[in-house]
Amino acid sequence: MTKMTETQARKLYEIAEKNMPAVAERGDLETRHSDNADFLDLSVWGTQWALEGAFNFGRGIEKKLTKAQQRSIYEIAAKNLPGVDGRGDLEERKCDDEDFFWGSVWGIQQALEDAFNLGRAAAK
Fold it and tell me: Nearest 10 degrees: CA dihedral of 92, 94, 95, 101?
């Protein structure tokens, strides 16, 4: 994959900030080497919206994802954010124990980059 530009990285942060209140409150996705600062309380729907936004940014068009693309987004989330692994999807279940999880800033960053790259590949 082509290295991500600073402008692309900034846009991915803005997508996360818009969809993940904990990211907006923190102000960045830089590692601070502190569990209290590096793990954020996330929602499954915010994660889904952020990764779908990163995917659409990568492919250069805002469009509803196919079921296969949604599955790929879930797999990216499950790989990078262990709190999602084992759920089977990123759908809201109206149960705090299932809809909220802890995610690391480096996991969020990697998931955004993976979704962006998947979107770029889909655009080709």
Answer: 30
Closest of 24, 71, 19 to residue 45, by C-alpha: 19
Q: Which two tokens stand for residue 5?
A: 């530009």
pLDDT score, position 48: 97
HSE on the CB side for 15, CA within 13 Å?
Answer: 26
One-letter identity of residue 53: G
Burial class (CB in 10 A: 0-12, 13-18, 19+), 93: exposed
pTM assigned to the model: 0.95
Non-local (6+) Cβ contacts of 44 within 8 A are 84, 87, 90, 91, 92, 93, 98, 99, 100, 101
Q: Quick: pLDDT tens for 72-112.
A: 999 999 999 999 988 899 999 999 999 999 999 999 999 99
